Amino acid sequence: MQKVYDRAYFDKWYRDEKHRVGSRDALRRKVAMAVAMAEFYLGREIRNVLDAGCGEGAWHAPLKALRPKARYLGLDSSEYAVARWGRSRNLRLATFGQIGQQRFDERFDLVVCADVLHYVPTAELKRGLDGLTDQLEGLAFIEVYTTADHLVGDMIGFKRRTPAWYRQTFAEAGLMPVGSHGWVGARQAPWVTSMESPQA
């Protein structure tokens, strides 16, 4: 059975007190951390954000609260989310794999892919990751969970991959870890000192 990201799905996992695993405060702190990390490596405030697998665009409001002038673009495969929030939150319809073929007029200071990749099939993940890396100017915040993590929440379609698998796959895509789900690409990697990266 194909997973459907409709209103019922988002109501259950993001709003229902019995099922949701995050809170607005936790999201606000996560967004602030990702923005601060991106700006640290860029040496300036972020100007734009790409949110890959954005769902309803939950990052939009906390990002705008921190950086009102930053341009936000969300991509998601949910027809419901894009129809409901597309205009007000600048969401567009796209699967993760399609990011491999899409190119934009500018690279992105912050690329967000939060709680997405562990549901994406391997071939699609690798296609999309190549496009994501190519369009990265500053920091990619890639929140992913593995076989080593204690998990709660939506386990339907969860791809059980090891931490080593993700590290190798991200490295092959040209990404370097800088901690706390943060990754930099070729444009920032030369400036990363040895103790900033867990792989050094």
UniProtKB/TrEMBL annotation:
GO terms for biological process: methylation. Residues 50-133 form the Methyltransferase type domain. Keywords: Methyltransferase, Transferase. Signal peptide: none annotated. It holds the Pfam family Methyltransf_12. CDD domains: AdoMet_MTases (cd02440). One of its GO terms (molecular function) is methyltransferase activity. It comes from the Bacteria. This is Class I SAM-dependent methyltransferase.
